[in-house]
Recover the amino acids of this structure.
């Protein structure tokens, strides 16, 4: 409680004068008694209820005094003090990394911070708030929002994204938002060192809301499988980060989320234990799950795809050096070999050559650049793409082609130069570029290495897997043609989303095994939790920096004038009723 206008305290003299007058007024009551026979009865009634009798005789006085006191109180403009958030602008930075799922009692650190934000949203007093979610990069959820309903809805919609938080990039981003305004920055995280905060503290106050609990964590640090004959061998590393020995169960699941192996494990305190499992049934994707009692479950599961892609790139020595350099920039292991040795390469390896005779073999994928069996002819014209799959990220409409080789028969044309075939695909899936690097300026354009990479992905793609991704990682992938589109499902056959752009791919947020349903076999891929998210740090809550005196006002005036006026009106009505019944002299 506080007083806004103490200068009106002098008005208290008015009820004081009325009170003094009351002491000097007549103290007895003239009462006519028709006979002394009834005197004793009257005195008995008076003595039985003296207070009620007193109140009845002095009702008008008490009503007037109470009204006057309330008027004096109202003139002082009282208010109720309540907490609010300081600063001209308010920024809430929310850590959405996987470690926020660590349990503090019965709720996660993320849920605890959600409740704190909901409580703070009721103390904004009309101020605007900006909410920024932090994982691999900062994302603005709300910007300068004042509507409490919208703010609370945004808080409730926040979800853990599992990506590792990038604090250096976030701090740079915050500095650009803060500007010169006095700002209160609330950081909701599990652990944050004050050294990670910017050095600037003038007119900026950092309120770090950390996780104050000491977490107990046992982590599945690494997991991998290799094929050994007709079975698989799995190796796991489990890190017991607690001070006690623990008992755990390690279970292995196949691509359809069916259990294929189980093993009881003893874990020594503060040690890494290696586990080996043999003779596992071969499957496209494998998941290991650790069952143990600790405070953090997100790092107790790991998935991997069975490694089967050992593709190498071999470039014909007779080709232009720009082709060799471009492939080596894509894959440093790419090597050059003499032309006569190309026929000796076996397996699923990419051959880059101009030897047309190699197109008839189907053992290795081939990228033919130029032709050794035909002569090029002079030709000029505009380049036009017919099939956009290879060129969605490598447009070639601005390149110049001086000469072309004759087309390959029974091959599908993917791009033309003035309606003449320029790039083709054979029935066996090989790609053909009907020009040499000496006959075009294509090698000088950024689209050239992008085309080679896309061609390599298309020609060497493993049919059963897509690889390993970080949570919400964006990557360009080469997908097989599909008339039904591309739908993403979890290992439990739960629909996740659909890919609208054939080459652009964003991985799901939650770690685990997923697959893309196509016209043929499903393409499996894994979303893996980053290693930084497998170690919990002890955090704490603290404040850093100060706001200016003007900006540190953290109280709001909640006036009670309306209540006082309503009470005074009721008292005036009561006075009027007393006067109506008994007169002014009562």
């Amino acid at each position: 409680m506080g007083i806004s206008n103490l200068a009106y305290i002098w008005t208290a003299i008015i009820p004081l004068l009325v009170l003094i007058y009351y002491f000097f007024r007549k103290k007895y009551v003239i009462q006519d008694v028709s006979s002394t026979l009834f005197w004793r009865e009257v005195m008995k009634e008076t003595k039985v209820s003296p207070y009620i009798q007193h109140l009845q005789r002095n009702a008008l006085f008490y009503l007037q005094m109470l009204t006057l006191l309330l008027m004096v109180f109202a003139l002082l403009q009282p208010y109720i003090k309540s907490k609010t958030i300081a600063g001209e602008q308010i920024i809430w930075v929310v850590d959405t990394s996987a470690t926020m799922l660590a349990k503090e009692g019965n709720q996660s650190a993320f849920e605890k911070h959600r409740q704190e934000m909901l409580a703070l949203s009721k103390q904004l007093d009309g101020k605007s708030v900006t909410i920024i979610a932090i994982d691999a990069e900062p994302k603005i959820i709300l910007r300068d929002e004042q509507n409490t309903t919208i703010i609370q809805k945004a808080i409730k919609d926040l979800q853990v994204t599992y990506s590792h938080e990038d604090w250096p990039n976030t701090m740079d981003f915050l500095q650009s938002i803060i500007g010169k305004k006095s700002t209160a920055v609330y950081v909701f995280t599990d652990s944050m060192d004050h050294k990670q905060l910017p050095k600037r503290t003038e007119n900026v106050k950092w309120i770090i809301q950390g996780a104050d609990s000491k977490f107990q964590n046992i982590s599945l640090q690494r997991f991998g499988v290799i094929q050994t004959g007709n079975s698989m061998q799995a190796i796991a590393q489990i890190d017991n980060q607690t001070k006690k020995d623990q008992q755990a169960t390690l279970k292995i699941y196949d691509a359809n989320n069916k259990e294929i192996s189980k093993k009881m494990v003893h874990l020594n305190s503060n040690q890494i234990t290696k586990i080996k499992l043999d003779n596992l049934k071969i499957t496209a994707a494998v998941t290991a799950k650790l069952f143990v009692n600790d405070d953090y479950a997100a790092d107790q599961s790991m998935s991997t795809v069975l490694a089967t892609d050992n593709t190498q790139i071999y470039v014909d020595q007779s080709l232009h050096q720009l082709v060799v350099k471009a492939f080596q920039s894509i894959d440093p292991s790419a090597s050059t070999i003499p032309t006569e040795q190309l026929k000796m390469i076996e397996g699923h390896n990419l051959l880059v050559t101009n030897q047309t005779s190699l197109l008839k073999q189907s053992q290795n994928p081939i990228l033919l650049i130029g032709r050794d069996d035909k002569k090029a002819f002079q030709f000029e014209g505009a380049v036009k793409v017919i099939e956009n799959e290879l060129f969605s990220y490598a447009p070639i409409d601005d390149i110049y082609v001086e000469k072309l080789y004759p087309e390959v028969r029974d091959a599908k044309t993917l791009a033309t130069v003035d309606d003449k075939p320029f790039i083709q695909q054979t029935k066996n899936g090989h790609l053909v570029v009907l020009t040499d690097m000496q006959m075009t300026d294509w090698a000088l354009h950024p689209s050239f290495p992008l085309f080679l990479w896309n061609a390599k992905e298309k020609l060497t793609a493993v049919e059963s897997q897509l690889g390993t991704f970080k949570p919400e990682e964006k990557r360009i992938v080469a997908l097989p043609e599909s008339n039904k589109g591309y739908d993403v499902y979890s290992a439990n056959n739960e629909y996740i989303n659909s890919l609208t752009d054939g080459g652009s791919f964003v991985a799901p947020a939650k770690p685990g095994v997923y697959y893309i349903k196509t016209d043929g076999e499903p393409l499996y891929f894994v979303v893996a939790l980053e290693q930084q998210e497998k170690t919990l740090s002890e955090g704490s809550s603290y404040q850093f920096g100060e706001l200016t005196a003007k900006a540190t006002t953290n109280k709001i005036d909640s006036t009670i004038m309306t209540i006082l006026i309503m009470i005074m009106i009721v008292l005036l009505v009561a006075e009027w009723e007393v006067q109506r019944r008994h007169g002014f002299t009562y």
In short: Confidence is low (pLDDT under 50) at residues 549-558. The two ends are 37 Å apart (CA to CA). Residues 18 and 65 are 8 Å apart (CA to CA). The domain at 89-214+536-553 is CATH 3.40.50.410 (Rossmann fold).
